Amino acid sequence: MNVLLVIPARYASTRLPAKPLADIAGKPMIQHVWERGRRVKTANDVVVATDDARIVAVVQGFGGQAVLTSASHETGTDRLAEVAAGRDVDVVVNLQGDLPLVTESMIEAVIGPFQDPAVRMATLAREITDPADVYNPNVVKVVMDRQGNALYFSRAAIPHVRDRKDRGLEAPMPETFYQHFGLYGYRRDVLLDFARWPPGRLEQLEKLEQLRALEQGCPIRVVVTSERTEEVNTPEDLERVRKFIADRSQLAGKNLSVSCES
Predict the structure, then answer these.
(1) SS3 string of 192-214?
(2) pLDDT of residue 13
(3) Which of 27, 91, 198, 218 has its CA 20 to 30 A from that of 62?
(4) Does domain 3-123+178-261 have CATH number 3.90.550.10?
(5) CA-to-CA distance for 102 and 229, rounded, in angstroms?
(6) Kind of pairing, strands 3-9 and 45-50?
(7) Contact at 8 Å (CB) between 101 and 241?
(8) Residue 212 and residue 147: Cα distance in Å, rounded?
(9) Strand 45-50 to 66-68 pairing
(10) Which residues are paired to 8 by β-bridges?
């Protein structure tokens, strides 16, 4: 199975301009994502798909592969499809360029389901344990059937537990609420079809692109993971990730110092 990881990276961002090039611990954010993608043993290649020559130059500068795609694309999925159209691959993974802390195991978890020929799309979810997340519209929820396929994605609290009155005051019921992570895998033909499908009514209402697939009758396999990652959308997100990496580096340095002294 030939697997291509594509990192869509748009230069313009309303909340965080030039986001892919934001410095994190001495490297641009896009390099952190690319390096993590390169460690995935089940992937054959990693390429950055961007609308800006400045990002291409930076990626090539650190030894990565970048493709300059159309500036008219409205979504990262459209950018993926343009790259996939010219590649002989089986599976394409959308590795978002604003996930500098994504783990190799999370990416591999998205690739794994494609060993089953029936799987057309795959994504990740994690059980919600924080009551506030259940009712937070910025935390996308997903409900699945017994085979692990998505029944629906929503910004609302789904499923609605009729007999619970706490509305966020108590811990969520176990194995009830799941947060969706925007890490997707597609069969190449499904990705090309997806880019041609018109946005659906539910997609427009919820502002969730993945609902387009469900409205077209395309199943999405959901892999439940215990891991989580941070998405960088705002200056506050960026500072939080910078602090996390700095703290981790400092801790690693202390551990090395103790090891050397002993």
Answers:
(1) HHHHHCCCCHHHHHHCCCCHHHH
(2) 79
(3) 91
(4) yes
(5) 6
(6) parallel
(7) yes
(8) 20
(9) parallel
(10) 49
Residue 255's pLDDT is 60
pLDDT of residue 16: 87
Query: According to DSSP H, which parts of the chain are helical?
Result: 29-38, 53-61, 76-85, 104-111, 131-134, 188-196, 201-206, 211-215, 235-261
- What is the C-alpha separation between 98 and 76, in angstroms, rounded? 12
pLDDT at 173: 77
172 phi and psi angles, rounded to 5 deg? -60, 150
CB-based contact 79:49 (threshold 8 Å): yes
Tokens of 123: 């994504």
Structure tokens at 162: 């009729």
- Tokens representing 214 are 């469900």
Nearest by Cα to 183 from 134, 235, 142, 151: 142
pLDDT of residue 132: 87
Assigned token pair, 31: 């390099």
The residues of the chain scoring below 50 in pLDDT are 257-259, 262
pLDDT at 165: 61
Q: Where are the domains of the chain?
A: 3-123+178-261
